[in-house]
Specification:
The chain has about 110 residues and is of the alpha+beta class. It contains three helices and three strands; from the N terminus they run ββαααβ. It has a three-stranded antiparallel beta sheet, with no helix packed on it. A hairpin with a 6-residue loop joins strand 1 and strand 2. The radius of gyration is 22 Å and the shape is rod-shaped.
């Protein structure tokens, strides 16, 4: 897997720790980012709803109740899209955490 030059997995932030002057090493949260968990759950539920219920489990009676609109299919598509958006958000804006839990966290510039 290729690594990105703009977001290395571990880096030295240059933040000095008081008078000691040591640098803080940080890394991305990766799979432990809450957005990955939320995106996974929504995406899995969306795929189940889309494939199992929307494509194969819809009866004519259910379609008649909804005005011939396959609501399960559209809800599943929406959930898959939201899950993909969470994954994209986590990839484009990763959470940076210190490698040493006792190390100070570098200041975030708001971007």
């Amino acid at each position: 897997m290729a690594t990105s030059d703009t977001n290395p997995p571990a880096s030295s932030t240059g933040a000095a720790d008081g008078a000691a002057g040591k640098k803080t090493t940080t890394q991305k949260a990766g799979a432990f980012d809450i957005r990955v968990f939320i995106g996974s759950l929504i995406g899995i539920y969306g795929v189940v709803l889309l494939v199992l219920v929307g494509l194969f489990g819809t009866s004519d009676r259910q379609l008649a109740k909804s005005g011939d609109l396959n609501i399960n299919l559209w809800a599943g598509l929406g959930m898959v899209a939201v899950g993909a958006a969470f994954f994209a958000w986590a990839k484009l804006r990763p959470v940076i955490v210190p490698v040493d839990p006792d190390a100070p966290v570098a200041e975030h510039d708001g971007h």
